[in-house]
Amino acid sequence: MFRLLNEGGPFFMYPLLVILVIVLILIAKGFLNKGSINKTISLISSFTLFALVWGFLGHIIGMIGAFDAIEASGGVTQPIFAAGIKISLLTATFGSVIFLIGRLGIIALTWMKKE
Q1: Which H or E run includes 4?
Q2: Where does 36-77 have alpha helices with state H?
Q3: Is residue 9 within 8 Å of residue 59, measured between CB atoms?
């Protein structure tokens, strides 16, 4: 797992990991402390949306870097190109997973709030 964090670029992946921990803590807090559930849902929503956008920003910057390297070298083989795309997609995937986890937490907290 830490290999994937480092491959995706520590500048983007480690903040996403911190956001994942925060989101999980907020979901647990929402289940334990039912008094401020609306504020908790709002925070989860904000953190997960940020994670999604941060992941896609990492993807875009990674792709720009890959295309700059291809341009500088004058050409590239298919395996090297595929590896570059894989690395740039790691941040977008991780950000999307965090977003989905947060959304599932929001659904569960909203369902719990209505009962």
Answers
A1: helix 2-7
A2: 37-73
A3: no
Kindly list the domain boundaries of the chain, sorted by start residue. 2-114
C-alpha span between 58 and 14 (Å, rounded): 12
Contacts of 19 (CB under 8 A, 6+ apart): 47, 48, 50, 51, 54, 98
Kindly report the pTM of this predicted structure.
0.87
Q: Which amino acid is at 59?
A: H
pLDDT digits (tens, 9 = 90+) for 90-106: 999 999 999 999 999 99
The string of pLDDT tens digits covering residues 60-87 is 998 888 888 788 877 777 777 777 788 8
Query: What phi and psi values does residue 82 have, to the nearest 5 degrees?
Result: -65, -40
How many residues can be counted in the chain?
115
Q: What angle do CA 70, 91, 29 make, to 5 degrees?
A: 170
Q: In 3D, which of 48, 57, 58 has the Cα closest to residue 23?
A: 48
